[in-house]
Predict the 3D structure of the following.
Amino acid sequence: MATELQRAVPRLHYLCAECGAEAPKWQGQCPACAAWNSLSENVVRLTGRKASVAAATTTPMEAVMAVPGRVIATGSFEVDRVLGGGIVPGSVVLLGGDPGIGKSTIALQVSHACGDEVSPALYCTGEESLEQLARRARRLCCTGARVRLLVESDVDTVIATIEAERPSLVVVDSVQTLRDAGTPGPPGSVSQVRAAVLRMSEVAKATGIPVLLVGHVTKEGAIAGPRTLEHMVDVVLYLEGERLGEHRMLRGIKNRFGATGEVGLLTMERDGMHDLAAPSRGMLDAASLGASGSVLTITCDGLRPMAVEVQALAVASLFELPRRTSSGFDLNRLHLMLAVLTKRAGTLISKMDVYVNVAGGIRLADPGTDLALALAIAGSASNRAVSRHCAVIGEIGLSGEVRRVSRTEVRLAEAAAVGMEAVILPESYRGEVPEGLRCHRVSTLIGAVALLG
Ligand SMILES: Nc1ncnc2c1ncn2[C@@H]1O[C@H](COP(=O)(O)OP(=O)(O)OP(=O)(O)O)[C@@H](O)[C@H]1O
Ligand SMILES: [Mg+2]
């Protein structure tokens, strides 16, 4: 229990800008994440219970039931599905993603769709000038009276403007540029970002105006600032994809109003972000399918299945230590798959360079695509192929067993829908198979490799 004296004296401690960990004294290196020079001062005033506290007024559940569950459409079916139908009034959405991936593009398009002449959206930026915004708005055809612009980084001014103008939606691009005068530290520091998000979230809840915060990501891919940021907002979205490719995936990491893990598929074109109409067809390149090293699999990210092509190239290495590179798969997962192929299926790849790619710039974290990856590598190494009309589904265990994957029925239905005639799938799957789809059931990786033709 803190004494009166302790309460009166402000306590100084330090916060890490990388991981948000606390330290009692300044150190050159964060004791939690080992980042250098990341600790900055944070003053905490210990408080005790006030002498007299009035009881708060509670609200009966029936009164809340009368409030309509309205959502605001964003103009994109794919963005709406990730949000759980649309933007909920008074909610705070955090949108993160790599530099140049298209965060400001989506934010401007959403504000243009949500605003109208009577109640325009407010696009507030601390990063770009009005000229830069105007260039983008012209390119995306988002001109007109539906969006008002504000170049400002002071939180108090932004909040005062929101209260005065009562926009239909507020976009803050980006949250790392906001500055709260009452909080120590430079813009972008942990304490500043936390204070700015808290203030924006308070104004969203008080006015019922939804707020879309754009957030930068760190080298490791997390939204820059404290991890607690994700707890402070209602929805966290990540925009992913290869910057030079045209496909983008909008992934729901957290959603208080809809399914988490839902994925929206978009294409980034010159005139902005568009919904990918037929995702599976958009991902398939008929020319390469059926060649050695190219395997079609059905991934099930979120609730929707999608056909994707996994490509591998295995060639004799000129190096002492063979090269392994991966685009679309985690490199550790590739190493694991190479180890299982070598040990359990006798594939001779230890002296080969292996390059792996997922067509369309998609990132695959779904273990149901393991078998496709393994067969693409084994096929390329031995110049054998999976038929162009055959899809591959299955997870691989360390002992080389092929395991059942989640939502197999949905994946099989999608395989049939994209015109596949056969499927290689785990032996243990006992569910329904669409008519006309031939099944090659396998229980081990070596059994699957034997099917390569
Ligand atoms: N004239 C253009 N024609 C086609 N595409 C363009 C054009 N200008 C920009 N782009 C695309 O838009 C992307 C930048 O989009 P945007 O500014 O929305 O990204 P961002 O995620 O907000 O970036 P940052 O992290 O720098 O704020 C570029 O990487 C490029 O792909
Ligand atoms: Mg931007």
